## 1
Amino acid sequence: MLDLMTGNAAAAKAAMLARVEVIAAYPITPQTSISEKLAEMVANGEMNAKYIKVESEHSAMAALIGASYIGARTFTATSSQGLALMHEMLFWAAGARRPIVMPVVSRALGPPWNIWTDHMDVMGERDTGWMQLFCENNQETLDLILMAYRVAEDKEIMLPAMIIEDGFILSHTFEKVDVPAIEEIDFYLHPFNPDVKVNFRKPRRYGSLVMPDWAMEFRYNNALAMEKAKKKWVEAGIAFKKAFGRDYSSLVELYRCEDADVALIVSGSAAGTAKVAADRMRERGRKVGVAKLRTFRPFPTEELLRLGERVRTIGVFDRSYTFAQGGAIYGEVRNALYPLASDVKVKGYIGGLGGRDITEAEFEKMFEDLLAIARSGSMTKDVEWVALKDGSWRWF
Amino acid sequence: METYRDLPQSTYSLQTTESVRTGTWRTFRPIIDTKKCTRCYTCWKFCPDVSIELREEGDYPKVDYDHCKGCGICANECPTVAITMVREDSIC
Amino acid sequence: MIEIRFHGRGGQGAVVASELLARAAVMNRLHAAAFPFFGVERRGAPVTAFCRIDLKPIRTHSEIYFPDYVVVLDPDLVSMTNVLQGLKPDGALLINSAKESCDLQHVKWGKVATVDATSIALKYGLGSENAPIVNTAIIGAFSKICPQVPLESVIESIMKASPGDKRANAEAAKEAFETVKGVW
């Protein structure tokens, strides 16, 4: 059924459609309307779930880890400072192999205080063992949360997942969303039925001590699960396409990359803007494409290598900064493409931090920059900050 | 400020929160009826926004309308019901 | 693609206006998106909201800098904000005002339409004397100047998603459509 809704409304709707059983959430701008909508749905009976009102995001995640151990399907949502407050518990959820699904409404962390979109919050959690997916629009927010339960609860995976929607840009923007019927979702998502479930008649300790001589093997198992998740996301995407018509059958969505001279890797809402810019470039005869990175964890190394075999100049647009080499995605893309290092040029662009708008015109300039690199075969800068107020007029 | 070079290392305000006139947020304003007021100072004690002023012991409490947000706690707590909440007459 | 910017005050319904308009466009089988100016909002403070309408799906997520239409829900805002900022040279302005367009002091623009949305809102009991809810009247008037959003779609949108008394809001929209002045 077609409706017009905000990203937050879509996220709450997905929780309802997934028949989530336990919710523990704490409000934070720009996530708050998810918590509010869920509370409303639980109160009016639209959702048959237990809503635990917790005093902090740390407690929210702790409560859900407990609920997940009982065998309940769990859900929460947060942003920036709240995600950071949960940090310790994120490691626990992944290490304990609890398939919690959590939309994260991306927002910068202060100071300086900032309520607008930025990927620094989720990038700060990329090594926790959580799966991380970026949404381009509100339809993806709804769809990816549903798919996340299917992948996360798979007995071979059992890893938690965060579904990232850009703060305000998606969370507070009304977009067209096709909402599937809950009966159809019941065919796509089966009830959560984990092998290990807390049994009060046989009490045990969970997450207990491991000695160094077995610690690595546990971590290795988690690494394998994340690797396996690549295939599972593709399978879940193919099944989703069969059931609902929308195509999520790859980890990286390639837009006009088949014959492209250059491609720009973008994640999140900016990917839509980049596609519009790519169309404009194409109208002017420039062969450019956009590679939208949907899954960041698991990292789509193989798909990017296949891209790198065809497209020899690749740009990466990051809404984050690592204090090492540029933005988070750039560093990892360059790393993944390293076997092709002598053939592929990779350049990083940092922009849109703290909610700074990123425009079609700026993407066109990035494409022009990449085309110049492709022509000349050389780069003067590995990483550039787009539209930084540095006194130059480079990006205006 | 023109470029990143003109900025301080992190943000800080040049004034205290007193400079933010939160009184403009009000929908209802408290009016203290001094004929009923016994100067028990319960309202001053309960005000969460430090928006009831007392210069000296023995003064009648006065509402600081520049900062009062109109929460109504003072009216609710006043033991002699000396405070009434009255609708502001313009939205801005 | 057409882009619209709304200027209002917190509490007048500028954000709901953008949402209802987007719904109306979708009901007219177009694509649409609506969003407020992203920031902390407060009753009485100036609020900006935006709407995009297109034949094709809307993929861009950048802000709107050069709207095709500007809609002003509160005439006092005209002296407080530059409501004409970025408005395309052949763009149009719609202002909630009881005056004819040529009397509006601060506005020097070619295509200006005015509608007395405040009186219409009060006539149908929408909001209060101090805080009239003019948004449905304003989008009724807007449909007169914007072919992408015909009145039937606006009414359909109001009957589906308007807060408050849907019937009264729909009547307000109809009356505004009929009484908007200065249309070219």
## 2
Amino acid sequence: MGYGSTGKLLRVDLTRGAISIEEFDEAFYRLYPGGKALAAYLLLRETAPGVDPLGPDNVLALINGLITGAPISTATRFTAAARSPLTTAYGESEAGGFWGPELKLAGWEGMVITGRAERPVYIAIKDDQVEIRDARHLWGQEPAPVQAAIREELGDRLTRVLQTGIGGENRVRYAALINDLRHFNGRSGMGAVMGSKNLKAIAVRGAGKYSDLAHDPQAVAELGRRIAKRVKEHPQSWDLQEKGTPGLVSGLNAGGILPTRNFHAGAFEGVDKIKWEAYEKELLSARRSCYACAIRCKREVKVDDRYQVSDVYGGPEYETIGGFGPNCGIDDLQAIAKANELCGRYTLDSISTGAVVAFAMECFEHGLITPAQTGGAAWRFGDAAAMLQIVDWIAHRQGIGDLLAEGTRRAAEVIGGDARYFAMHVKGQELPMHEPRGKVGVGLGYAINEGGADHLVAFHDPTYANPNSLTFKAAAELGVADPLPPRELSPRKAEAYARLENWSSFGKVIGFCYFGPAPRSLIQVGEVVEAVRAASGWDFDKDELLRIGERATNLARVFNAREGLSRKDDRLPDRLFEPLESGALQGIGMSREEFETAMTALYRAKGWDPATARPTPERLAALGIGWAADLLT
Amino acid sequence: MQLHLGGHFNWYDPQKRAWLAIPLAAPVSLRTLLEQLHVPPAEVAILTVNGRLARLEGAVVSDGDRVEVYPAIGGG
């Protein structure tokens, strides 16, 4: 009888070309049941302080969660983690698709990749057969031909390929990993880390079954069937199936929280051209799914009109539409789809790339980037041709694209002047397309998250604002006592945030996507507990699940503290403290005083020292990771 | 009036329409109207009437109004 894990890590040292197996026991896994927890543990244990993010000594950890690969909708995710080249802090990004489950079914809980190959290579895994193969002929190629070539070489058209592309090879600091050509570990620059190791791809095929790993496979399967049956009867999952994340555009615009022109405004005059109804009419070609997921939220697009957009790399998600659309002042949905395709072809994080384009446009409009640097083009807000040119230049590090490939923080330092003010980042990672001035808890998340600005680190404020809503009921179950208005920036908001962050962090440990469990609530809190118990056999309750999430966050925080990060790094861009220029929240900005007070309350709620923003030894001990306190002395 | 059932709210319409044209002989409470359409008022997070943000409590709508309602929106 299993406990949901294969109990094995695959270690690959690319410098020596050495492959080895590490086995761990159940007691260890109870403490670090995969994903973010196990990845952060490995990074803390196996990287030296100050390790060069793009050097051979950085560790790239690719780690499944306990539930990854279970036949339950949204149990698809794996974590990619390393010291981030973008932030130089703890770096992490989760992806769905098929690669993580396939790795698990091949017998591996995860991979730990170290060193640097002398020449480009890829790793081929078929169950316990692992081989490092020459990839010189694949270097410089785009993901689609690379995947086709690897499948051809291995004689297996179903092998799942995780890879980085030209962005990663060129060490664009926000380069992504891509699997099955459409699922991304986008954030934190994991593609650059993989590229820096001369590692082009990892192909995996597994013949195992999750039922052989689970404690109670019948209970897991029954839960999976029960949840799948309910997808069309649950309004939120039905909505995701019908529209996917592009369905978010018009609501955020109506609420005045659609980031527009580099976060100057909260509503976009061209919204009707980019909202879901336009997407369905102009772009949509099909709907697709991740492994075993009945929601099917992925969009496929194909365009042969003003732009040619292939259906190879998947369709733009909300973040990508927001980033290349309103935040760049662009209302041409086909151009946005083209930018999304370029991010797939070049393996770039579309959130950071969109934000860098917006930054470059604002710099141009203020004369900080000149026509002499753009090849004569006018990089103004609203110019779709400029947007596509910038993405292309970033990927190839052409001209000033070489600087923009470093991210907004580094680029602003070089450009100087007001450019620092235009760089919308936290810890060097660019803001996602959610406006903290209208949902301030999202701002707390941007500020405190160890990997920099991220929108998937906790519930968004509107989900726990309305006392009778389904989403508030989930928040209440997790310990949020009172509904709180979305713009209330207060100590009690910070305390609620801390509880809910632990839940989201737990999801990143265990392998659940954000779109299944509460707050989306297709999968209720109690059912998540049920899933963990059925998979592992452990007698965990929801408080223990929250503790798992908290443990993972604390490990990441210790990593950052060890690298010298402190409270001063948990900051937000100045612009967020200024009033929005238009939209339903016109004139509204965040209060610095309220923000600092809330952050102090947040550190206290987490058991961290508000002065240093470090976990206290007592808190680490209470979480079962007292050993980590030794790394802070 | 024109009513937009934004986000997942059009799930509650039997025909899954995103926009409904509703003739109104007299002003009505928006809460009552949503209840008649089986859209749960408890889930309304964002409401605009003629492009301006409004609160559901006390909202009264008339023929000719353009109303948009959205549920709470999480990450995307």
